[in-house]
Amino acid sequence: MFFVRKTVIGLTLLLLPMGITPADADIYKYVDASGVVHFTDTPTHGRWNMYRKDKGFAGVQLRSYGEIIRRHADSYRLEEALVKAVIKVESDYQPRIVSKKGAQGLMQLIPETAKDMNVLNPFDPSENIRGGSQYLRKMLDLFDGNVDLALAAYNSGPSTVKRYGGIPPYNETINYVSRVKYYLDHYRRAGDTLL
What we know:
The chain is mainly alpha-helical.
């Protein structure tokens, strides 16, 4: 326990001269196979766990997300509520999250999709939402505006949806489509709010 406290204190002292206070970023913790504890504000794989969540500027962040979502939804002719719902289900508005499969950021772009959408930094909220919105538009166009199929393709890939001729019979994908549609309905009714 002393080692962990010493590391946290050392990390704090290291960040202070750079003008970064502990309240400026979420901190993630990872214990490697040797038992060494690592901390970061930018997780690079799915084994990182939330250690301390930044709550200091959450309201400001969510408001700015709303503006970013509005801009990119308009740009890609998407309903704002749909983009919000995808973000809610994919990352719960956590911009630095990484899934076990390597998907990154707010809209959980896998590296290949991020590259295809010209997203250089998937942890940058504006870039991530732009890339995710562009990909969502691509899926909607591919499946003739069918939201269920576009969401299934966003989750499990368009080739899987084509192979099954509809929503694949995977619990993860079925639940994903259902959850996004639940939040889509919520955001349609709630308007500008974010959960």
